[in-house]
Write a structure and sequence with these properties.
About 70% of the residues lie in helices and about 0% in strands. The chain is mainly alpha-helical and about 260 residues long. The protein has two domains: about 160 residues; about 45 residues. Helix 1 packs antiparallel against helix 9 and helix 11 crosses helix 12. The two termini are about 20 Å apart.
């Protein structure tokens, strides 16, 4: 089996690519602008007037910090949408319900459905990655839903995730992240994105149902008016586009219909 990927992961990957490129551009622009501002009592206000924008009292470090915090919220929101779609794709592929329980973290939910051993074996530091993601999830909650309770949960998660943070930082060769809730910055945005893009494709491998099931999932009532050659190409294209298969595997599956 090879190159199976869910639509939701491919959509998420495009989203993260755009977000991280924009985050990098914002970071570079803010740093450059902050270093180039003319001396005044409110240099960002003065610069903003040049572009007919009214803003008062902001500082470069505030722009950088807020941008990073909001990008972390966006990344997790994208992951949340991914998981909603992943549940539906799982149900369609295996023709069974996804087990969802209240008050269970998203990755505990994934473990229950995909198998705890399979998730642990998905990556050499899978459990540690999940530990960091769980910390970032609670940090996201403290930003999107600010309260003393959520801030405390984020701080506690940072403390208890020490082993996971150190193992993940060592794996990626990073010294600049993960950071505490008060110090979240652009490097956390990069790390959060990278962890998800490395881990989620492994879940696609777990849910790859095999060629026989993919053949069963191939619509039989489409393309009936096409000649045999065009019908075969349409079926191959469907498998490639829907399940991310390489063309050789898709051709083999379609060929077994003959």
């Amino acid at each position: 089996m090879s190159n199976f990927s869910t639509h939701c992961f491919r959509d998420f990957k495009r989203f993260i690519g755009e977000l991280t490129a924009n985050a990098a551009g914002t970071y570079v622009a803010a740093c450059f602008t902050g270093q180039s501002l003319a001396q005044s009592d409110d240099p960002w206000r003065d610069l903003a007037k040049t572009y007919d924008i009214k803003v008062d009292g902001i500082e470069t470090k505030q722009v950088l910090k807020s941008s990073s915090r909001l990008n972390m919220v966006s990344i997790y929101s994208g992951f949340d949408l991914y998981l909603t779609s992943f549940r539906k794709e799982y149900t369609n592929i295996f023709d069974k319900d996804w087990i969802k329980e209240d008050k269970v973290s998203p990755f505990e939910e994934i473990r229950k459905n995909l198998g705890r051993k399979q998730v642990k074996a998905a990556h050499e530091v899978a459990d540690e990655m999940i530990g960091v993601i769980e910390y970032y999830r609670l940090f996201r909650n403290s930003v999107a839903h600010p309260s003393d309770k959520n801030k405390k949960a984020a701080n506690e998660a940072f403390k208890t995730s020490l082993n996971s943070r150190e193992r993940v930082a060592d794996y990626y060769g990073m010294q600049s992240a993960p950071n505490s809730p008060e110090a979240i910055n652009f490097h956390d945005v990069k790390l959060f994105s990278r962890i998800l893009l490395d881990l989620l494709p492994q879940f696609d491998e777990i849910v790859d149902p095999g060629d026989e099931r993919l053949l069963e999932l191939l619509p039989r009532d489409r393309w009936l008016l096409l000649n045999d050659e065009r019908k075969e190409n349409a079926r191959i294209g469907y498998l490639v586009n829907t399940y991310g298969l390489d063309r050789n595997r898709a051709s083999k599956i379609v060929g077994s219909l003959a």
